[in-house]
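Tutorial, part two.
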Amino acid sequence: MILAFAGVYGDHGFADAELPILRSDALYFSIVTWTTLGYGDFQPVEDLRLFAAYQAFVGYVYMGVLAGVVVSIWGRRD
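Running the prediction step on this input gives:
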């Protein structure tokens, strides 16, 4: 999913950045957004702000579910 989001950012660019966008920058932004870190060095274009917020929400939920699954599996071992 992170790669799919990065593809969208790579296609549409970032605010105050020239096209084409480096794939590494799009992937970096996607990872930072997914993990809800949000360094702020890149910003999505105005049309993608809600899309980036959606990615952050999905990442937040995914990390919570993943943590719950890991704790559940770890608890069954004992």
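The first helix runs from residue 2 to 12. In part three we will examine how such features are distributed along the chain.
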